[in-house]
Every structure is written in C-alpha cells, then in structure tokens.
C-alpha cells in the first residue's frame, strides 16, 4: 500500500495553532492574580465605580436623597410649576435637578421658588437645594435660605418648608431664624428666633421660641430738631404678629415659674418688664401708642450721675407722637424717699416732668393727700431716651 502524504500547508497551520495556544496559556498564567491580591485589575469591579464623573452626585444638604443612585433624569435649567385645580401654588427654578422615578422624588440645586398667594405678589425664596415628592405638593428648601415677602421683609434660615394647600410657611424650632424689614414709615425691625411660621391665609406670623426683637424708631428730637433713633429691644419666649392688624404681641411660656414669666423690654436708660407686651406699627393719624406693657409692670429709669427713678403699674402706654409714658391701673412712681400715686401718671421723658391725676404724694415716709384733679411736679430724674 502506498503511504498517504500530508500537504505542508496543513502541517504549518496546525503548528501555528499549537504555538498560539501555548503562548496564550503562558500569558494568562503569568498575569493571573494570586489569591488575596486585592490590587489586581482582575478583581471584580464595583458597579458604583462605573458611574462617570458627570453622573455621580455630590453630598446633599437635603436628607434622604439617594445620591448613590444614578438618577432617571438629570435636567439642566430645570423649571417646575405646581398647581391645584388650575390655581398656581408655587414655581421652582434650578440650575440642575435630578429625578428619581421609583421614589417619586425631585432633588434640585441652586434654586429659586415663587410662592403664589391670591391677591398679592409672590413670596420669593432662594436656597442651595430643594426637594419635593411628585405625589405630594410640599416644597422643602435647604442651605442659605433667603425668603423675601412682598412688603420687603426678609428672613434668613437654613431650612424652610411650604405647605401650599394651607398656604403655610414653616421653619421648625431646630433652626435659627433672622428677620429684618420696615414697619410703617418710621420703624426698622430686626428679630431672631428659633423657628418661624407664616400663615398666608390669615396674614399672621408666629415666632415660637427664644424671641429677640429690636425696633428702631426714627423720631424728631424736640431740642435739636433733628432726626434721632430710639431703640427698643424686647425678649420673650414667643411672639405673634398680625400683619393685618399691624400689632405684635410678646408672651412668656406659662410653664415657667411665675418669677421668670416676664417679658423684658430695654430702651436707652430705661428697663421695663411685664407679663406681656404689644408693639403697634400702624401708620395712621389716629394711632397713638407704639408700645403697651401689660400686667405687673416695672419700669426703671437710670442715667449716669443721676438719681434713679422707678415705677410700678398694671399697664404702661408708650406714646407715639410725644415721648410720654402713661401709667395706669394703680400706678406708683418712686424717687429717692418720695412716692407718688394717682389714678393716672404721665412721665414726660423729654422734659423730665411727672404729671399726676388725683395724686397722693408721699415724702420721706409722710403722706400728703393733694386730691387734685391734675397735679404737675418736676422730677429730679433725668430724661430717658
């Protein structure tokens, strides 16, 4: 039998395949990671590392944001309008926003929101971040929150939540709040508190905790005929402000001991305390008083190198047009060894005169009943501004 010959080309191809398999095996064996070799490129890649830099999210100020997830949508120049029954509630604009469909959540950064109130210009809010759920209408904002009301009043905080169905702005007591603005034409107001609430429907503000309220009145000095600033500082546990009635009421928490349940009012050279107090900022010709202290009122007037004068009464009215304090409800004024009582006592702060209706004067322990309808006497105490 004649031997069968194999073509050289087939031998060459077979040899090449064997050589390629051998080389490939050697390469794989040399690069294969040893057990425990954590740095090897052959270890399993975490899927999170596949998120590119432009998709990865920086840390969020807003809580419960799934920053480790890739958002379903990432929108630059984001705008959203919230409405109910065809009525606009709020509008949100942001430099960018992430949308998470599963959570029905939108998280936006560098935001501006307009809160709409029928019959009024919108309230404008700016902040670092905002979030809202698509199945709810509440809007929350976080970080450097600045809220500007239509009348120019501004409040600053680190957090705010808006409930559009009740038209209610709330800042929890966890956050400090600062506010500033003008009341009427002659008063500047600044305040601090823990927490804040504004009921748009009722046009009422509540400062719920640790209130520090400063009012600066611009008045005419009767001596120099130049404008001067009169400062009033009020500290209380909470305050309620009616923007419609233009009055602010300051109260203390009833859980406090009675001795500590006192609103503190300070003016230059004058200290006042009472159970509660009111500030009026209505700018009309009929408005008379800018402040009233109520119940267990104590007033101390002091000035350097002068004799102190103090007074007690049930109510003290601070006149707007004239720099006068009217003491009512069993008023008494004390200075040195002298005591004056009456039905009504007027303290003229610019001229340092005390005027008494139906007075009983006590001097150095001796009582002198004058029983006059109106008695004027010049006090030794200095003027209080």
How would you characterize this protein structure?
The chain is mostly beta strands and 385 residues long. The chain has 2 domains: 46-159, lipopolysaccharide transport protein A fold, CATH 2.60.450; 166-385, lipopolysaccharide transport protein A fold (Sandwich), CATH 2.60.450.10. Helices cover 6% and strands 53% of the residues. The protein is built from 1 helix and 26 strands. The protein has one helix at 8-31; strands spanning 73-84, 87-100, 105-115, 123-133, 139-148, 154-163, 168-183, 187-199, 204-207, 211-220, 227-236, 238-242, 247-251, 263-267, 270-274, 276-280, 289-301, 309-319, 324-328, 332-335, 338-341, 344-348, 353-357, 360-363, 366-369, 375-378. A 10-stranded antiparallel beta barrel has the order 8-9-12-13-16-17-15-14-11-10. A hairpin with a 4-residue loop joins strand 22 (344-348) and strand 23. The chain is elongated and about 80 Å long. The protein starts with 7 loop residues before the first helix and ends in a 7-residue tail after the last strand.
Shape: elongated
Question: Helix count, per DSSP?
Answer: 1
**CATH level-two architecture of the largest domain:** Sandwich
CATH class of the largest domain: Mainly Beta
State Rg: 37 Å
CATH topology of the largest domain: lipopolysaccharide transport protein A fold
- Give the percentage of residues in beta strands: over 45%
Flag low-confidence runs: 1-6, 21-54, 365-385
The residue-averaged pLDDT reads 81
Give the helix level as a range of percent.
under 10%
CATH H-level name of the largest domain... which superfamily?
Answer: Lipopolysaccharide (LPS) transport protein A like domain
Order of strands across the biggest sheet?
Answer: 8-9-12-13-16-17-15-14-11-10
Q: What is the first-to-last residue Cα distance?
A: 137 Å
Major sheet? 10 strands, antiparallel, barrel
User: What's the number of extended β-strand segments?
Assistant: 26
- Class derived from helix and strand content: mainly beta
Domains, number: 2
Helix and strand sequence: HEEEEEEEEEEEEEEEEEEEEEEEEEE
